[in-house]
Amino acid sequence: MIKSIAIENLRGIAEGKIDDLAQVNIIVGPNNSGKSTILDALLIGASPNPWHVIQKVVDRRKHLVDPHLWLLSRVNGNRAIQAFLTVATDENQERFTVINLVNQAGQTPVQVTYGLSKEEYEELTKYSNNIRKLNPNAMNMEQILYTT
């Protein structure tokens, strides 16, 4: 059972965490307050295949000009380039998902990485960037994670 969820830069939620979730939870609030974002985050974060779930979430909103960009929050007029989700279970396990915005021609607009904690992801990204400074032809972190 899911016990908590942490959300960063997903849709309208810049940062938030909900602890002590029960088997049944009621989410209430005014329109556009983030209720659906919490449900989408739970669905994406708890899925064994987050990319597939993200596609379903995006497909439900085909009327949007760029539904993939819609996933990432906008803070102070600037769109985030990454979203982070952490779902913790009562078995003391955490499932971590990173959603990356990709601005390279010919690639899907969003890449998804899961299985690493936020700290592990940031540490690997730092090492990847250092390697790229030494060897500009080396793959960056997103390419490494996307190809493995």
Folded structure, characterized:
The structure is a single chain. The chain is an alpha+beta fold. It has two domains: 2-115, no CATH class; 116-148. 34% of the residues lie in helices and 27% in strands. It is built from five helices and seven strands. A five-stranded antiparallel beta sheet has the order 2-1-5-6-7. It has a two-stranded antiparallel sheet with strand order 3-4. A hairpin with a 2-residue loop joins strand 1 (2-10) and strand 2 (13-18). The longest helix is centred in the last third of the chain and has 17 residues, at 118-134. The protein is globular. The mean pLDDT is 76.
Structure keywords:
5 helices; alpha+beta; 148 residues; five-stranded antiparallel sheet
Protein topology:
Layout: E1 2-10, E2 13-18, H1 35-46, H2 50-59, H3 67-70, E3 74-75, E4 78-79, E5 82-89, E6 94-101, E7 110-114, H4 118-134, H5 141-147
Poorly predicted ranges: none
Instruction: Supply Rg.
Output: 16 Å
Assembly status: single chain
User: How many structural domains does the protein architecture include?
Assistant: 2
Query: How many strands appear in the DSSP assignment?
Result: 7
Mean pLDDT equals: 76
For the record, give the distance between the C-alpha atoms at the N and C termini, rounded to a whole number: 29 Å
Helix content: 25-40%
| Physical arrangement of strands within the biggest beta sheet | 2-1-5-6-7
What proportion of the residues form beta strands (DSSP E)? 25-35%
The number of helices is 5
Gross morphology is globular
Main beta-sheet annotation? 5 strands, antiparallel
Q: H/E order of the elements?
A: EEHHHEEEEEHH
SS-based class: alpha+beta
